[in-house]
Amino acid sequence: MGWKEAAEPVLTRMPSVQRPDGHVPFKRKLGWTGGILVLYFFLTTITVYGTQPVGTGGGDAFGQFRSILAGANRSILHLGIGPIVTASIVLQLLGGANLLGLDTDDPRDQILYQGLQKVLVLVMTVLTAVPMVFLSSGILPIAPGAQETLAGFVGVGNGSMATRWLIFAQIFIGGVLILFMDEIVSKWGVGSGIGLFIIAGVSQRLVTGFIAVFRDWFGIVTGSTGVNVFTQAGFQDLLFNQGHIIALITTLLIFAIVVYAESVRVEIPLSHARVKGARGRFPVKLIYASVLPMILVRALQANIQFLGRGLSSLGSAPAWLVEYNGSGQAIGGLFYYLAPVQRPSDWIWWGDQTGTAATVAAQEGVIHVILRVGVDLTFMIAGGAIFAIFWVETTDMGPKSTAKQIQNSGMQIPGFRQNVGVIEKVMERYIPQVTVIGGALVGLLAVMANMLGTVGSVTGTGLLLTVSITYKLYEEIAEEQLMEMHPMMRQMFGN
Amino acid sequence: MSKGENSGGLMSSAGLVRYFDAEDRNAIQIDPKTVVAFGVFFGALVMVLRVAL
Fold first, then answer.
1. Which of A207, A249, A302, A325 could lock onto A65 through a cystine, CB 3.0 to 4.6 A?
2. How many structural domains compose chain A?
3. Residue A188 and residue A233 share a domain
């Protein structure tokens, strides 16, 4: 009757990576994780056959969003985790609004959920790749000579369409590979593949960024770059451009804030119903929903910008909708206000005169720059809070699910009756509030970091994600080692 | 850490993609080594294509 029965034959047959039989030793887990990471880096270095290498033709379709969407421009992994994130947004919204009707405790529904997830990612891969390959000539420009070579092979007069199909096939396979690589890491390795790819990309940029800072300071100290600190322009140059001082401070500050915020928590005491003295605590962390919902908000903005570009490339977009400057940045129209602030020159209108802020302030007035910052702040803070709520609901971290888990583990809150409803009531006092505050705070942090700039322009969201994922990974590794230690200790003492 | 302490396990938040233990018997199962081998092979193929053509 419902969509479940209709879609079941397809959803249950989606190919998936085998699960390991039994326990995977920690070393083997690290091996899988490292192996996938090497494969990921290998694939990002290979330019898709039939396109020009990076640096010729147009820019990156993802622009500044690249740092959180992973992958590499014009490589086999051109799409990065973009389709996965977009599919996840759709699932979160459907799940959050309870439109799916799937109960994730029921094994049958779990299989359906997994299948639906895969189908959605595949659909999104096609939907993201098609406009990039077929509608725009600047994103994946055809290399000179490629279509002639291909035309010779295929035996048709014009090889342009054949080349486009070939490019499409390559990035589509890349998208599918990323999905399966994530599944391998989730099942056989440590953490999740998506987290791994995000940290890999951001860390790479951070290292390059720090080398650039070092190189620039070497120039300033030795005097080969003329910076006059005693003029306003020179001082600003030292702070924002050549000196990278603000970017350095922001980067370090974000690190410190996230690590601190990870430890801010409300602890609900628990005691065992039967075993006296067995006590525990249930931590409700300030960033309870973690920083991951943030990626969904950013991806939503990325998709909006993508739409704007698509509209303007069709050539019929009116000026009130979108207006671009030479380097493809929105400087007017609705999509200008919806574009997130990515770097200091996006809002410091008195600084860098080539930046979008200076252009807009000169043409339209300062108020439009401020309006855009306001829109971005609202979008990120409200979006962060909303997606955090959805995230908590769909990943079974909500009051109802946690109460059930605590009850099943035989624990109770001292001073309260041992009853799921009672635990849920107590949880309801903390979890929703903490989730909203945490989500909004992370949104605010991401925007502030972008406004001040970060080393290697990894963007605030990229940095927040990296620090928070690394912290989670560290926790998981520690837990993993503990589990590894116990049977070993038992063996050692037993034999 | 005492046995009764509820750290870690409860808080484990999934990645963007969630995987459950349940599996359908009809589903096609892929060995992770096959995925890695295919990835390496595909990368090498594209590389060779770029050099050769």
1. A302
2. 2
3. no
Query: Taking CB atoms and an 8 Å limit, are A12 and B5 in contact across chains?
Result: no
Same structural domain, A292 and A158: no
Nearest Cα residue in chain A from B45: A49
What is the average pLDDT across B5-15?
Answer: 40
Quote the Cα angle for A33-A36-A41, to 5°: 125
CATH number of the domain that residue A124 is part of: 1.10.3370.10
Same domain, A175 and A259: no
Decide if A2 contacts A101 (C-beta within 8 A): yes
Q: What pLDDT shows up at residue B10? A: 35
Q: What are the φ and ψ backbone dihedral angles of A341, each rounded to 5 degrees? A: -75, 120
In terms of residue numbers, what domain contains A436?
227-493
Instruction: Give the lowest-confidence range in A123-127, A273-277, A314-318, A440-444.
Output: A314-318
Q: Which residue has the higher pLDDT, B37 or A317?
A: B37
Length of chain A: 495
Going by pLDDT thresholds of 50, 70 and 90, the confidence category of residue A8 is confident
Compute the nearest-CA separation of A134 from chain B (Å). Answer: 20
Order of strands, edge to edge, in the sheet holding A265-272? Answer: A279-285, A265-272, A411-412
In terms of pTM, does the model score above 0.90? Answer: no
Q: Please indicate, yes or no, if residue A5 is contained in any of the structural domains.
A: no
Measured CA to CA, the distance from residue A271 to residue A195 in angstroms comes to: 34
Q: What is the pLDDT of residue B40?
A: 97
Task: Kindly determine whether residue B42 and residue A194, on different chains, have CB atoms separated by under 8 Å.
Answer: no
Subunit contact B13:A292, Cβ cutoff 8 A: yes
**Contacts with A179 from chain B: Cβ below 8 Å:** 17
Domain limit, last residue, from A198, A213, A244: A198
